[in-house]
Amino acid sequence: MNLLRIVWASITDKPLHSFLSVFVFSMSIALIIWIQQIHVSLQHQLLNTSYGVDLVVGAKGSPLQLVLSSVLHIDTPTGNIPYNKAKKIAKNPMISTAIPISYGDNYKGYRILGTTEDYAKLFNAHLQEGNRIEKPMQVILGHTVATELQLQVGDTFFSSHGLLENSIDIHATPLTITGIYAPTNNVIDRLILTNLETIWDIHDHKGHHSHTPHKKEAHLPSHQNDSITTEEPQEITSLLITFRNPRAFLTLPRNINKKTNMQAAIPKYELEKLYQYTGTGIKTITLIAYGILGISCLIIFVNLYRMVKDRSFELALFRTYGAGHWQLIQLILLEGIILALAATMIGVLISQIGIYYLQNSIEQAYKQHIEFSLPITEIALITGMILLVILIACLFSILPIFKMNISKILNNEN
What's the pTM value of the predicted model, to 2 decimals? Predict the structure, then answer.
């Protein structure tokens, strides 16, 4: 008795029922895998990407917006703050490093960030080629920027005002690429770094921007460059702070929020809140996915159970020709496994197609690559759950086999 041939004939005999079983089951698998990949990625991105920054000081507004714009660079900033006031905060003895950042321009959608050399140290970023920035109007590219835009050391380009790509408000002063960072798989890969003077000069509309010499580079952590010769007070977007000891968490943020016109936001706290908000939606979608999985289990059970009832005469004939209960049970199990394997392969394919388009949309909108992957434990859990569902459906569908009255079935059929 060729079990595979008999099972395949049973599946193709009722193509609509078989298609419905595979379709619903594959949709539930696709949704479960898709949402779990997003959940794991969000957990990593939101809870493990503060890059050692303990505090962000910026303009008043939404603290979450301040963190997203200054740490993850996926939002617009809340505004600017005076650079001289930021330097006063940086002198606090509880602060280990204070890194100023300033931006407002982009090149083909990639943000241009004015900062100091200490910013690259947050990511352990090292130059893959080229040299450090020595004067204004020089930039270093993140690895993703250089790769995607096919730029090299020595090339020049013109930046656009704002954080979105546009061909209208383009600055007249060219920027020269002096170096390219090695890949870090962090946010710095999709940034264009320069010094603070470049940002200030580009936005100086009094006609003395790119040709005004600067004797010193702004560098807060050493607390030595406390004055820069300029006609007007300069501004930065925010200040990235790391503490010397945990006690600073108790006093410094509160003092800044109460005693200054700036705000202090703790990245880990704000990203944890965001994760909790998104986690509610993820849990809801996950419950829906498990509900669909339960429905697909019920559909498979009904189809297998009806197959046993409708083909009772053929099964009774198998018994008369010497087939035992176990061989009949194998027919049911084999059909269920084939349907499950087909649904699993289709479900995995659909989920990865969805992840691919999600990655593309994120990269186009935020110029950020997010790796969606599942750990081995999650894959084993999902696989075990699918096998358990099929096993339950098959076990309930084989019950009529044990209650089969062969003589009665054959007599009624005759």
Answer: 0.70
